[in-house]
Design brief:
The chain is mainly alpha-helical and 436 residues long. It is built from 20 helices and no strands.
Length: 436
Amino acid sequence: MIKLTRYQWTVLAAAWLGWGFDIFDSLLFNYVAPNAIPTLLGLELGSAAARAETLYWTGVLTAIFLLGWAAGGVLFGPISDRFGRRKVLMWTMVMYAVGTAACAMVTNIEQLILCRIVASLGIGGEWAAGCALVAEVVPEDQRVEAGALLYTSAPLGLFLATGVNSWIAGNLLSDNPEFSWRVVLLFGLVPAAFAFVVRLFIKEPERWKSIAATAAPARLREIFSPELWPRTRSALLMTLVALLMWWSCNAFIPVVSANLAQAEAALQGLDRNAASILIESWKTQATTFFNIGGLIGTLLTIPIAKKLGRRPMFAIYFAGSAIALMSTFGLDLEPQTRLYMYFFVGLTVFGIFGSFTFYLPELFPTRLRATGSGFCYNIGRVIAAGGPFLVGSIAAAGAGDPSVVLRTLFMVGFVPVVGLLLMRWVIETRGQAMPE
């Protein structure tokens, strides 16, 4: 059982909320993309052209978003090491909240891209500040539990995004999908209010203050020094594999479920409103199973990492990810059975991220902790951005045919296989104190 003081729980709660709302804001758009993109392009919802353009632009927008996320992580990591975790956590939460809400006001794709970039910069910066804050405040023997618990806010952030979309687009405004997506995105402002909680109740970690008072400003090039390069390489390899498979499949959960639901609606001869309700219901089902699996998988990193070690943990999750992805998208399944299979994708592909909040801070000294963690966790998104782009482009070339989408996602299952081949370069940190 995790044992923390009241203040340590407060810090964990603040970072937990920051990361949960981070995920909430980052993925709100994925839910509304099947309605937002055709509306902005002047296409009829549900048409073949709308499906193809939605797949293509979902891939493009996700790729751009990941590039902005990477830039935010690289930019705000050194800022956090120099000016403090608390300040950066607050600044970035406001930044991504305003950027997401501004998406509700756009009138074309170009404006949407700009707003998504603003949001992505804030989201990239928040993670580095939050995980460094928690790692430096909690006791050494509680670091794994606190780090994994911090990441449980990610699936719960997805639950919140799913619930908001289901409530607005699937119920209150189900008869007006051309407008409902704007209302959904306005909820992106919610995290800004919680940024003020951080300002009121959180202070900078003593561990950081004692180092920052005398240490030279962090320089990104330092994490590539001969002494730190093996640790940086270990972090980069593991995060790259995890990010590539996560974004390549997760970005398309709403699109896949919407396509399957549209085919089912056509088979049943449902009218426009009934079809819209079915689509939103299937989006909710797929995402819910993915989230539940992710929550359980995140918590399972605690016993696996503590009893077996970090390297075996990564190997177990990558092997499970390959099986889950290839089974979910490669087997001949009934549409709703495929939705249920997202549980196993979440358990593995999503669950592995529960480890990075404790593993990455373990690799770097205090004065470089946010710089190293932020860079390694986020720079992989530059390469990972190619995953959603390729999936979206290939699927769009198939005119939105669900079978083309599924075959493309099946190929993503080979990414974690590559991860298994990289295990020899993983640095084991089990039982070690964080470097000063």
